[in-house]
Amino acid sequence: MRSMLFGLMFLSVMGLAFWANQENLKTKAELTHAEELQAAIGQARDRLSVLNAEWAYQNRPHRLRDLADLNYEHLQLLPLRSDHFAHVADIAFPEKNPAPLNDINLAQNEAPNE
Amino acid sequence: MSEMTQRKPLRPLGHILSARANGEDTRLIERQNIRERSSSQTEHQRQHVQGRLFVLGVSFLCLFLALGVRIGMLSASEPTEPRSQRAGASIVAQRANIVDREGRLLATNMDTYSLFVETKHLVDPKGTAAALATIFTELDASKLLRDFTDGRKFLWIRRKMSPEQMQAAHDIGDPGLRFGPREMRLYPNGTLAAHVLGGASFGREGVHAAEVIGVAGVEKTFDDRLRDPSQSGQPLKLSIDLSVQAAVEEVLLGGMTLLNAKGAAAILMDVHTGELISLASLPDFDPNNRPRPPVNGQAEDSTLFNRAVQGVYELGSTFKIFAVAQAMEMGFVTPETIVDIRGPIRWGKFRIKDYRNYGKELSVSKVIVKSSNIGTARIATMMGGENQKAFLGSLGFLEPIPLEMVEAGGGKPLYPSNWSELSTMTISYGHGLSATPLHLAAGYASIANGGYRVKPTLLADQPVQKTDRVMSASVAEASLKMLRKVVTEGTASMAEVEGYAVAGKTGTADKPGPQGAYEEDKVIGTFASIFPAYDPKYVLVVALDEAEDRSGDEPRRTAGWTAVPVSAEIIGRIAPLLGLAPRYETASKQ
User: Fold this and answer.
1) A86 touches B: beta carbon within 8 Å
2) Single pTM value for the model
3) CATH number for the B243-589 domain, one of 2.40.50.320, 3.30.450.20, 3.10.20.740, 3.40.710.10?
4) ∠ at Cα B502 (B501, B508), nearest 5°?
């Protein structure tokens, strides 16, 4: 009885030790993975900062103005001025009470105007 | 244990009986037994305590051993980061970026490489020197060869270079050429806002890294903040607006070229918060390649000189409104009060006269509109020098503006140590007291925001400054009305920008030469403006140095012909960018 108990204890200790070792290996693998991810994040950050700098450089106001001047014939871009503002009344909005849909020859399955 | 369980009785019956039989005293037996019992107890306790002490001693020994081993291990082993709790990704060990108020990049960092030579590894000094000289045109092959062979071990070639140059240097293939990683400061917008940003340079440098330090502008003022690793993730947000700054610089440069000016400055400020939306000074420089400060000549001629912040000038008639505002504040005059403008006023050798003869008398409002020196001087004498000095001091005209730029300390106003009555009169129309355009902008902001003192700032998201009142709201409003009239019917008629109701005052001041006497034909034209007058939001100060309009028969130098049209063009360009919709006064009347 006693030796059986002893044997069981020994086996359970060995089992636990095996499990602990497995967990240790897994943790180490995860840590390595995390480190790789950190390094990848660092590299991505570096790339991002270069891209941001390049974006800012490509969009610098001097260059945009030069581009607008170069492509004036196609785009006709001008600096915004006060006479480019318009009053709300100057804008053509759709009519408030359009003619009833029945009067217009539309497909029958269209939903009626509410 | 057996002693304890089988306790010996104090009066054992056997002994007592035999003692009684012998006629002895039984108490002696009892005493003897008591003595024996207590001595055995003492011995037992002593052993017990000794055992405890031993256990305690052993455990302390273990503890100290463990500590000693740990300390030894820590000191002997290589330091490593704990793998499981690295913050890594969140901390970027870089100088923080600088962005404008909309978050657009003004300054950032780039990874690059430095190039240096370790001469003992050089295989072919002559060929390497020749090849390097072809890649970097500023280097001289024969000088390089001399440096390679004069016995030194180490030589910097370039502190930073482009990837193409690095590849070319790599292709030379000499093992003596070494590259070291470098971080450099990059200003993607080039010359834009150059004076505000300042520039950066390398501090202490080693082969593997170099310290980037700010040398001027906000880069220097906020150097500690920008280098603080805990804040490097958050960019420094300036109040400058990139697109507005670009428009201001473009128009200002155009105006400066057309009017043959030597230099120009423009300041655009939010009148409520003191945020500087734009701060321009021309000619400017490229902070990516900041020139060295001039060794000789006048500081003012250097491109590094910031006219808006460091340039201390007499600002001319733009000052008149302060004298009038103060006279109204003290109750001496109202806008309708009639002032005697017969002149010239004589003061010893000195004569005060007007640009033109405006008649015998004018109302206070007209004195401003026509810009009468005599009228303003008479108003100023009502208040006296002491009061005038105190009022200008409360507006900040007597000390440098505490702006977040190292250069701002250089903009120290100049005023006479003896504030005489003559000084009072000349200062009332802007001569005798020199200040920077930034001082003027701050002073006009107080008129525009209803009478509160404003301290200019370069940081975004500042609160409205409504604590320090310098004049009453009614005086500020009356002054603003006069300034509006200057544009609608006075000297600044060219400043009318349809829809934005500009108010402002021109100023043309003679420039003192190197000897201190005023030079002929050299003036600084200034226009300080507030817009829109119906709900003042911004103040714009434009100063042109030695500008003259040569389009007519005679060169015209007054600010009305130089600074005013430039200001009008600037306002027309930037007001829509600032999100201001035009409001037409005629339309509102209908």
Assistant:
1) no
2) 0.78
3) 3.40.710.10
4) 160
